[in-house]
Design a protein that fits this description.
It is globular and about 40 Å long. A hairpin with a 2-residue loop joins strand 9 and strand 10. With 115 residues, the protein is mostly beta strands. The strands form two sheets. Strands 2, 4, 5, 6, 9, 10 and 11 form a seven-stranded mixed β-sheet that branches. It has a four-stranded antiparallel β-sheet with strand order 1-3-8-7, with no helix packed on it. It starts with a strand and ends with a strand.
Length: 115
């Protein structure tokens, strides 16, 4: 089973930027899509951004225009560039790899937006 490891989380001030990275243990072409999800305290996990094997992206309405997902097929990594961060973006961010309806998840990385 693929192993996913997120990095890049931390504390950032409102209005700031942060880039998350996800490293996969195998070729990400093996998966229909890679994605980033997040879960805030007391809330269900929600999709943030996904990118499929063809490079087509999808974003949650709340992050459109602020977040950008990208993939490096040679390095088997997926990145999430985040800007104009606000307190509502505070959450644990999880990397995902999907084959059909089966998801594999990383352990997550904490992003905290606070002054």
């Amino acid at each position: 089973q693929v192993q996913l490891v997120e990095s890049g989380g931390g504390l950032v001030q409102p209005g700031g930027s942060l880039t998350l990275s996800c490293a996969a243990s195998e070729n990400i072409f093996n998966f229909n899509a890679m994605g980033w999800y997040r879960q805030a305290p007391g809330k269900p996990r929600e999709m943030v951004a996904t990118i499929n094997v063809g490079g087509v992206t999808d974003y949650a309405d709340s992050v459109k225009g602020r977040f950008t997902i990208s993939r490096d097929n040679a390095m088997n990594t997926v990145a999430l560039q985040m800007s104009s961060l606000g307190p509502d973006d505070t959450a644990i961010y999880y990397c995902s790899a999907r084959i059909l309806r089966r998801f594999t998840w990383g352990p997550g990385t904490q992003v905290t937006v606070a002054s």
